[in-house]
Carbonic anhydrase
Amino acid sequence: MPELTAASLMEHHQAASVLAGLLEGNGRFIAGEPRYKRDITAARQHAPGQKPGAVVFTCIDSRVTAESVFDCDFGQLLVVRTAGHVPDRAAVGSLEFAAAEMGVGLVVVLGHERCGAVAAALNAVQDDTHDPRTDYLVEQLWQPASQALSESTDAEAAASQAMRLQVRRTVADLGRRSSLDGVLVVGAVYDLDTGAVSLVDEP
Ligand SMILES: [Zn+2]
């Protein structure tokens, strides 16, 4: 797994400065001082073209709206979403497209607390339940769910740990792909209550 070390930050100088910009945006979001008004005037202004600096790869959860969380304007952020940010083919293809066609050098894998997809996997592992409608997702999240359950003492800790493991797994999966060579991939967690984004592995 690529570590977010000082050396890798030097190597990814531009991506690191984009990341710093996103975290600054998160600071404005938390402070209740957003810079961008995402209304029709802003939409029209940016309609002719886009120059996104990063992709946020996050969960489908309705409470995790990347443009708000990072206080980004139209045209600044690409967002890929799958439940539990499972990096399956179409999601990875979207990241590859962003890197190859739009020159995006930063992917932020953003997990969040109280993730429903992770909870479904935890329930399935614990109760050996079987619902064919969630089979695919549960299978994809089985490993972090079962590892977290074996390492945690209570349900809340297991849920948080499973989500963090899934963020790291997703980062590692993307980091192994030569199609994403030169792209800085970092893991982060969004706190639903405070609005804060924190990096899973601090530099
Ligand atoms: Zn989720």
Summary: The domain at 6-199 is CATH 3.40.1050.10 (Beta-carbonic Anhydrase; Chain A). The mean pLDDT is 93. The pocket of zinc ion is lined by residues 59, 61, 84, 112, 115-117 (CB under 6 Å). The longest strand covers residues 106-112.
